[in-house]
Amino acid sequence: MKKLVIEFALVLIVIILGSFWWGHELEKNNFLQENQESLRVGVIFANSMQDGGWNQQQYDAFQGLQQELGLQLFYRENVPELDLSIEPVVDELVQKKHVRVIFALSYGYGNALQRLAARYPDIRFFHITGIQQRENLATYFGRMYQARYLTGIVAGMQTKTNQIGYVAAYPFPEVIRDIDAFTLGVRSVNPAAIVHVRWTWSWDDEAKEKRTSEKLLSSENIDVLTQHQNRDYPIQIAEEHHIYAIGYHADHSAEYPDTLLTSAIWNWSSFYRQRLIEYREGRFSGKNYFDDMASGLVDIAPLSAAVPAETREKVASARQRIESGSWDVFHGPIYDQNGWLRVRPEENIPDQVLVESMDWFVQGIEGTTWQPVIGEKEE
């Protein structure tokens, strides 16, 4: 009897251990299968994803990673920046397409994404230019202001009238800090130059952008024009008026060889590759990413033949300082457009301010952000 009890106990132990082993192997196999299968990723655009500008850069980056990372991509374009527009899109991507990761590629999706991230805690969200994170919601952008500073040096050295135009979409922190950085670059080499800013109140509206550019050129003696829009409509106007321009998003010098001096450009592939690999390895982090020029995310396009050697030297010198980390663009003293001290000597504007609440123009800008001004008056 005692022998039977012992044999039964041994059999029971074998069964229990076997079940643990089988469960572990099943879990392991499921994990391996999930990582061998195509990762289902949703990508949401506010406008056309093949616009030749902002959205095109995102689209090209994802397309380039599709085969390398084994991605199954579900694109949704022309989704307005309204809660009632993006919510059903996300519901459809999660419930019907079974995506595991969603990239939302416009600032205006922020409020809706907070609710959607709470609704789908197992889905990982990435919000470009966003400012609010959650455990399953990361925000990201790049220090484009560093590239803008360098293009500002080019504009400041190139202008003969000391009047430079800047056509921009909305007075958001993302846009304002780029305008400020550009102007700081301009005035680092040409303190007499003025940057005239005009808003279009649209990311992608051909008629508005062309009309705003035309009106700006007709009212000011501008000989260099730049922009912060999804497409290159202001650059088209610059070419028609036979003045120089500085582009954004990508290098379009082949299209405007006699107009573009350079462009502030994005290189998104490396960034997206790293984030998707981290997700697959279980290392997703709901934080804000703010990569710099040294990382390769932001850069400037090759300078055109119209840019003289002296300008090239100044750009190279400033670039070296930025990439070394020994100095950054928003290093004080910095005065605002009304002459008030905003950044004290040897201080820098904190990243949180740059990302979330940058709402004032630096000295040398003609235009308004419709924000109150506080600080210390320059003597």
Report strand order across the widest sheet: 12-10-9-8-6-7-15
Question: How many separate helices?
Answer: 11
- CATH topology type of the largest domain: Rossmann fold
Number of strands: 16
Explain how this protein is built.
With 379 residues, the protein is α/β, with parallel strands linked by helices. It folds into 2 domains: 38-142, Response regulator (Rossmann fold); 144-265 and 297-377, Rossmann fold (3-Layer(aba) Sandwich). It contains 11 helices and 16 strands. It has helices at 2-36, 54-69, 83-95, 110-119, 144-158, 173-189, 206-219, 233-240, 269-280, 309-324, 351-356, and strands spanning 39-44, 71-76, 101-104, 124-128, 137-142, 163-168, 194-199, 224-228, 244-249, 260-266, 288-291, 298-300, 334-335, 340-343, 365-366, 376-377. A 7-stranded mixed β-sheet has the order 12-10-9-8-6-7-15, sandwiched between helices. Helix 2 links the parallel strand 1 (39-44) and strand 2 (71-76). Helix 2 (54-69) crosses helix 9 (269-280). The longest helix has 35 residues, at 2-36. The protein is globular and about 60 Å long.
Defining traits:
single chain; 379 residues; alpha/beta; Rossmann fold; seven-stranded mixed beta sheet; six-stranded parallel beta sheet; 11 helices; disordered C terminus
Describe the structure concisely.
This protein is α/β, with parallel strands linked by helices.
